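Attaching the record inline, Q. Sequence:
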Amino acid sequence: MPRQYKRKLGARRYANCDPATLEPALQKVAEDGWSLRRASAEYKIPFGTLRNTFREKTFIRHASLCGEWGFPLSILDVRNLAKNYLESKGRAITRFKDNMPGKDRVYGLLERHKNEISQKLATDIKKNLRETLKDFLACNVFNYDKTNLQDDPGKKKMLFRRGTKYPERVCNFTRTAITVMMCGSASGVLLPPYLRHLQG
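Structure, as predicted:
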């Protein structure tokens, strides 16, 4: 659960505006193409408040859409997205470890938008898959998987004269990688395996 923030006496105020005024301003930006500066001036809302709320609502809307598509985001996904966004903007937040917000930040975001998004256990994937494939013949549904096999001689610590700059060991073999791909249909037909051999 997010921490309960207690405002310090004399600290800067945030979101110091009427929610009834904030929503129409955000609607003008999202639907009518207004700039944040114009909406801030017209509705007399602090620019920072309007900008931060607009960013949060945009993210919440896209996160909800991912859930509708069957690819919901986890708390870690949200934190990584925030980190990638900050890095794409060239910003470094010193209070974030490795420029990644903590879990409390994400929980606070969810709490502020609890009427729009919530956490749920994702347990309906099989049901959704069954509904998606109900009109397909079993012989037309295929699944494949691949695995990689490597023959890596690796590295070992050996004895060399002290001061040797380039310690090398002569081997009569090289590194080999073989990729094996198997594919089969829902009707039980197994296709011949596909092999890919790489040697370096």
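Strands lie at 142-151, 176-185, 194-199. The chain is about 40% helix and 15% strand.

More tomorrow.
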